[in-house]
Amino acid sequence: MFEGIFPLLLSIVILLGILYLAYISSRYLGNMATRQSQSKTMKVIDSIALGQDKSIAAVEVGEQVFLLGIAQGGITNLAQLDKEAIKVNLEQEQQMPPKFGEVLNRLKKK
Question: What is the DSSP letter of 60?
């Protein structure tokens, strides 16, 4: 009777060990990728996708902020933005969510 149970239990233990090792290695690789993608001088403030393989990103480099157009063909500097104006806008958005009437009026204007 125990002849069939022992190999089954051994298989379950080996499977759990493999799953645990996969979990540990994925956490390690994720942490390593996060550390490598962080920069001391550059930071993506915000980005928005415009379509497949097309987006716009606001990137802070040192004390300057650039608006970049990103497409399959390359990256284009669209404008240099005012860092203080961006910070004020971000703080205002975080403090108060837009009211339904304001959103509706904005949509009507478009």
Answer: E
**C-alpha triplet 81, 86, 90: angle, nearest 5°:** 155
Bridge pairing between strands 42-51 and 74-81: unpaired
pLDDT tier at 109 (50, 70, 90 boundaries)?
A: confident
Considering only CA atoms, which of 52, 87, 91 is closest in space to residue 70? 52
- Cβ of 31: how many Cβ atoms within 10 Å? 10
Q: Note the pLDDT tens digit of each residue in 49-107.
A: 998 889 999 888 888 889 999 999 999 999 988 777 766 666 666 666 677 788 788 88
Only one residue has tokens 């415009």, namely: 50
Residue identified by tokens 């942490």 is: 31
Edge-to-edge strand list for the sheet holding 54-61:
42-51, 54-61, 64-71, 74-81
Q: What is the torsional sign of CA 36, 54, 42, 45?
A: negative
